[in-house]
Amino acid sequence: MExxxxxxxxxxxxxxxxxxxxxxxxxxxxxxRSKNGEIEITEARDLPNQIPDAKKNAHFLTDPLLLYQVEKxxxxxxxxxLGVYHSHPDCKAILSKEDLExxxxxxxxxxxxxxxxxxxxxxxxxxxxx
Length: 130
Prior knowledge:
Radius of gyration: 14 Å
Strand content: 25-35%
Strand order of the largest sheet: 2-1-3-4-5
Low-confidence stretches: none
CATH class: Alpha Beta
CATH architecture: 3-Layer(aba) Sandwich
Helix content: 25-40%
Number of helices: 3
Structural class: alpha+beta
Number of strands: 5
């Protein structure tokens, strides 16, 4: 999965996580899937975190209407949402119970561990299709 990310996308994810700190950043990974199942991430798009400020360091929520609008736009361009990303401020880059419960099979889930000193770790997960 690492090969799906180029340096520009990785730098953008890191910038988003540092910029949102001490809150959580969140966004979507956009790109194409080849016929043999390989993916290419061509864009990372930040989404507004809809969680009230008091809880933004522990949760994220995106607007479903905004996601629908983005999906329509991407469909017209021959692209799709291939995954989501979010940061874990002052926590490890591991799936939380909430992350596990909300994972959509087949999508990539990138978690960035961020502290006041910067990015501590980045992990990518995917729930297999059943």
